[in-house]
Design brief:
DNA_primase_Znf_CHC2; Dna Topoisomerase Vi A Subunit, Chain: A, domain 2; DNA Primase, Chain A; zinc; alpha+beta; Znf_CHC2; 9 helices
Length: 285
Amino acid sequence: MNCKKAKQIDLASYLKKQGFKTGKTYTKDIWFYSPFRNNEKTPSFKIDINKNVWYDFGEGIGGTIIDFIMKYNNCSIKEALIILSENTFPVHQQKKTVINETIPTYSIKKVTELNNQKLLDYVSNRKINLQFAKRFCFQVHYSFSNGNEIFGIGFMNDSGGLEITNIISENFRKICLGKKEITTINNNSKIVSIFESWSDFLSYLTIKKQIPKENFIILNSTSMVSKVTNLLIDYDTIKLFFDNDNAGNKATAYLKMKFKNSIIDNRIHYKNYNDLNEYLTNIKQ
């Protein structure tokens, strides 16, 4: 086994054969729960399917299958090649059709657990339970073409994009790094609760003081509401927690028109507030 042959081994197939747990699979990449950390709650290890390389957002490193073996086994290149030669694995098939992609104007430097005090204070000031926040959100360090590194609170969507709330800089306070998409959380329930944002979702968990036995959909923008219609067909109960504004009214009316008998508009419980989080910050606990 030499380096050239080793790099032809399909990385995703290798990791699956070793028993590493996968997260979500997309057209261009596969997310794994990091092999380098135990009990990870959200996948942070990504494989680029076409390029056959990996990147671990928690560690801030990546590379080929050889780099992975060396990191995981703390061994040399020679020892890594011996490990790979001990078994047979599928050969990576490079796609012949190359799609010209727009080069992103941003770069993600690293993704970690929420630990910056300013971000933790922001969450606490909104009375959101920190344990829920750390379970579903990340601390994302990134930069734009100017090279200045900034960071914010990240919430992953179903396309692997990161919905960013930046409390440090006035510019780009709320952006999406990657493709804009909804976020779905499946708990095998016939009840689904739908929110506009991650902060409203976490506010709901904080009020309940637990994660209810429900499924959850976070739109990440009311402009995404049409994307959920096909997902709602089989639910007995659809609970809405939108904002008390024009966008929230339109999204509620849209879903009521399609699922009239299943919809519960929960805004009645916080009708005097703009959204569920504002209600949370004003109630006595």
